[in-house]
Amino acid sequence: MKLNRRINLFLFILVLISCGNRFPERPLIQYTFETKTLEQILAGDAVWSKAHEMKYHFGYWKPSVWVKFDLVNPENEPTDYVLELESPWVDTVLLGWESNGEVVKKTFNGSGAFEAREVPHRNPTYKLALNPLEKRTIYAHIRNSGILNAPFRIWKINSFFDRIERDYVANGIYFGIIFALLLYNLLIYVSVREKAYVYYCLYLTTLGINYSLLGGFFKQLLVPELAMSIKPYLYVSVNASLMFVGLFSLSFLNLKKVNPRLHLLILFSVIGFGIMSMVSFVLPHNWMEVSFIYTFPYLFLLLMSAGAYSYIKGVKSSLFFLLAWFTLFVGVIFDSLTKASLIPFSTFGRYGVQIGTAFEVILFSLALGRRLRFLLEENLLAQNQLTTIKKDLETARKIQMRILPDKLPTNQKLSMVVSYLPLYDVGGDFYDYFEFSEGFGLVIADVTGHGVSAALDSSTVKIAFRNAKEFKESPKELVAAMNRFLCTSLHARFVSAAYFYIDFENMKLCFSSAGNPPFILIRNREIESFECPGLLLGVRSTFAYEERVVDLQEGDRILIFTDGLYENLKSDEEPESILFPEISSIIGERSELFHKNLLDRLSRMRQVSKDDITLISLDII
Predict the structure, then answer these.
(1) Which tens digit of pLDDT belongs to each residue from 88-113?
(2) Which 3 state secondary structure label does DSSP give 431?
(3) What class does CATH assign to 23-159?
(4) What does each C-alpha distance from 362 to 183, 322, 324 come to in angstroms?
(5) Domain named PPM-type phosphatase: which ranges (predicted)?
(6) pTM, whole model, 2 decimals?
């Protein structure tokens, strides 16, 4: 509702400032394409045609035209008039007439400096003084490298300058809207970093440049002392506008997902407009202007079709996109028909392009605002979902912590240090132990995969381990029992594991492995690794596992770990060649410090973690 009131206020202001004085009718002209001098024209050598059918437009391919019309002062006193040609982009104009037997000439050069003009106005403008009841025939030779037309108006001087003030207010409102929307959307882009806002801001910028060039404001207000032709810059900015609005449409309508073929068609069109923008300085001007006759309707139909398709496919903000293009199209049509005198003059016709583009950029801004709201809603939903996932992960982490031992063993014959570092909040590594008077049993396992699913399966490994307690003094039997259980309990997932049994009475370590890395024994500052090959758990229920025995001594340090400890450190090297040098540097440190420093040294070598890490240090005391 607030936006509608603002739009209505904008239209009311335009109507108010444009209705103070009625626009004078264009004079009836006659024309000829003959190449003659002003003296030959005044001598009556030319054959003239009336412009009733062609109105005041003569196409794109004629280089010049002579026109003539009568200027009459119906007053009984001298009157000052202003003759205005509503073509700020025309190349040259030669104006002439006979007065008291003398030929009077006035010229206009579109490439000349603005400050050299007779009347400081964006259009070619001339002051004329007529005697009471005088009738004067005016001859004008117009040259232009684009569209050739002769939209003259004859003003009384006071009405003309009053109209100038109103035009400045109307165009000031238009440029104010463009600048305000540009600044507003730039600030939004800084906040959200949405690519569509960049293209929209670039489109607004080139749109403002287009109209400042097309309306003659650029030379008048920015470079009045500079002699230059605006046409090449106009063609560059117009094609750049088409390119940026195409890029904006691609980003806004999300056509790459909605319709890839339509996306490619618009993308190739955008590339074409970009190329046209770059070659605008070298192509003939009439070619460029003729191209706009086809490119604007083509782009209009293409983007309207894309917007309609996107809307049908559920992109609801595309409705604003469609309305924006429709209002621009209506504004351009009314403006063109009014300037060609094909429809009666009206305020909307006079300011058709301004009103159409103002509505377009406002509706585009609304569409972006709605898109931003959807993005914020999706972001909020994603944050809520992320919060829920985090809560679930925290719950899973707590559950997994209950699966792992809640304390270290209290056996007087060994000390144990454990580091459990899951890749995510929860992991697939697992360890547990049996503690009894004559011995100590320890299992370590690594479920394939990461995250919640692996963590859930690690609980199954714990059940398998506890169910095999009767084999606690026989590692190969315990691992085999776990394997039989997991073959029926896991689906498409496997487990590497190892079980170690320490016999304190005989000072022996018995172990069996199912694909787990070899363990490391440190004795008298010497380092040695021991391996017992075996198939992963959960692959074949009838697999028979081996068992090895290692003699122990007081002061031995045993390192048991999963493969995450050394993976992603040095490619194509065995665990021993990676770990042994690091262990040698800290081999004499006490258990807790040794354990911490080893992890720190390996962590500094590791660029990125890709697996869960479990490290267990056992000291025989």
Answers:
(1) 888 999 999 988 888 899 999 988 88
(2) strand
(3) mainly beta
(4) 13, 12, 8
(5) 413-620
(6) 0.59
